[in-house]
Structures are given as structure tokens and as C-alpha cells.
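Field log, afternoon session.

UNIT: design team B
ACTIVITY: writing a sequence onto a fixed backbone
BACKBONE:
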């Protein structure tokens, strides 16, 4: 369901109807307030909503959170092959006492995943930000060799298992302009990123970098890798949202379940007007089904 005052329910319903209630061999079910999804195949929340389009209300947070918990529980129990989430509104959830900065962190908690990793994927580009919902001022101290190693291992495993890339190639962006310019613009590349890349290559992985982010995403550059690890949120999300705004998909790696979501927000400005574009939701559903099939997850 996502944030009920945003476009989440609308695009979920539109995608459900466009796909005829199923994707491949997988039946689709909508999870949320029964009043919002009336007449469809649903799993209802006990908590109710009083949603006004474009006006988020902390009183709806209980239903938003419950819907996520219900869906995760179904996946963990083998009752569902995957979870596709509509956008949530982090600020209103925080106002209601929700302690997590976003979906990714909450899903990591619910599934006891050691490290949940956010990938944004389309047919043009796959990016993974090392740090996700963190203020830019806190990014440098979060860039560590261990974090890079752990994240890259998860990404490389997912590229093989979920995207059927037998020998995945991973590019890593630098933190500083021009990837530090040999230490002139920062030492994180030499002291932190390069040692991690060296160790990954010693483990037999195909990893290149650190590369300057300003030349990493053009057409010719993208031919040299299957995914990019960036150091912070906007460094990776700006390129993919520029290239694939309507068909980009958020995939959470490192979980014991399949989870995807559309690569956009709640769009309060158009909520309730009936003109929200559901292409990214359909792309998210298709990718969830594809990954579930790659993992041989039924339901």
C-alpha cells in the first residue's frame, strides 16, 4: 500500500489491473487497508486509514507499517514469492515514532539481515549507494574498507544469482571529485577504497576503480561494468533517475526475501488526481517475479 495519501495505492491498483492480477505463474495480492483496495484480491491490515490525497497524516502510520510487516512475514513463511512496496513518506512515519530512516533499513530489521543493500536497476544501469539515507556530512566516516567489501560481496552474489550474470563486473566510484586526484582532493580513495578493491580482485572478483563519478555514467562507460557502487545516495541515484525515471526499480539485496519497489516517491502533488504513472510499479513487479523465478521461489 505504501503511504495512503500519496500515489502508492493508485499505482498499485493500476498495476494490478493492468497485469490482470498475476505476473507469470505468480498471483498478485494487494496488502493494506481493505477500504482502499476494495474489490481486489487483498490481505487486509487490521489498522485503518483516513487518507486524504496529498495530506499525509501520522495517524495512518500504523497501517503503513503493518502492511509491510504482513508482507514480509508472508515471504519469510514461504506464503509469498516476493514483496513489492509502494512509496512511503519517511517524515510522517518518523513523526509517528517510526525509528528507521527508510524501507531498506526496516526490511533489514524484520528479516534479521546482517546488511541490507539498496540497488536501483533498469535495463540501462544498476547502481548501489554504499551509504543510503545519511546526511552528506556523515558520509566520509561511513566509507570504510569493511563496508565496501561487505557490500560488494552482496552485490556480486546478487548479480550472479538474481540477474544471471555469470562473471559480473563491478565498478566503484570515488568519494571525492576526480576520485581524489592522486590524493590532492582527498585521501579516502588511496587509504580506504583502493585496498578494498585490491582485496576483492584477489578474491577473484572483477572490480575496477575508484573511478571519477563525473565520467562513469555515459554510454561508452556503461559498457565496461554490470553495476556501480557509489559512495553516497545522490551520486548513484541522479544518473539512474535521469536515464530510467519511469522504469527504474529499487531492489533490496542481502535479504532472505525478494523485495522491489518503484524508483520514485509519494508524489503528493498529483495524489488522488488519477494521472499517476504506474510504469515503474509494473517494472518493479516484473523484476520481483524475475528474481523469484531465478531463485526458484514459488507462490
Amino acid at each position: 500500500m505504501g503511504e495512503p495519501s500519496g500515489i502508492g495505492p493508485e499505482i498499485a491498483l493500476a498495476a494490478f489491473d493492468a497485469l490482470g492480477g498475476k505476473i507469470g505463474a505468480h498471483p498478485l495480492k494487494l496488502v493494506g487497508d481493505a477500504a482502499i483496495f476494495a474489490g481486489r484480491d487483498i490481505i487486509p491490515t487490521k489498522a485503518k486509514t483516513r487518507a486524504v490525497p496529498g495530506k499525509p497524516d501520522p495517524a495512518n502510520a500504523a497501517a503503513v507499517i503493518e502492511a509491510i510487516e504482513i508482507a514480509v512475514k508472508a515471504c519469510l513463511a514461504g506464503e509469498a514469492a516476493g514483496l513489492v512496496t509502494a512509496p512511503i513518506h519517511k517524515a510522517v512515519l518518523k513523526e509517528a515514532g517510526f525509528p528507521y530512516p527508510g524501507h531498506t533499513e526496516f526490511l533489514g530489521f524484520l528479516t534479521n539481515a546482517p546488511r541490507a543493500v539498496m540497488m536501483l536497476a533498469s535495463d540501462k544501469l544498476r547502481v548501489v549507494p554504499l551509504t543510503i539515507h545519511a546526511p552528506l556530512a556523515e558520509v566520509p566516516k561511513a566509507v570504510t574498507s569493511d563496508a565496501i567489501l561487505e557490500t560488494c560481496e552482496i552485490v556480486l552474489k546478487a548479480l550472479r544469482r538474481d540477474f544471471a550474470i555469470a562473471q559480473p563486473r563491478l565498478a566503484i566510484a570515488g568519494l571525492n571529485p576526480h576520485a581524489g586526484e592522486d590524493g590532492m582532493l582527498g585521501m579516502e580513495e588511496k587509504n580506504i577504497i583502493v585496498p578494498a578493491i585490491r582485496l576483492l580482485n584477489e578474491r577473484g572478483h572483477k572490480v575496477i576503480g575508484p573511478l571519477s563519478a563525473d565520467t562513469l555514467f555515459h554510454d561508452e562507460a556503461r559498457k565496461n561494468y554490470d553495476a556501480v557502487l557509489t559512495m553516497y545516495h545522490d551520486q548513484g541515484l541522479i544518473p539512474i533517475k535521469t536515464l530510467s525515471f519511469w522504469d527504474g526499480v529499487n531492489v533490496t539485496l542481502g535479504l532472505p526475501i525478494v523485495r522491489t519497489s518503484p524508483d520514485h516517491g509519494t508524489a503528493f502533488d498529483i495524489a488522488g488526481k488519477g494521472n499517476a504513472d504506474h510504469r515503474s510499479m509494473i517494472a518493479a513487479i516484473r523484476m520481483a517475479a524475475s528474481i523469484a523465478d531465478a531463485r526458484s521461489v514459488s507462490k
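LOG NOTE: Residues 239 and 252 are 19 Å apart (CA to CA).
NEXT ACTIVITY: expression trials, pending approval
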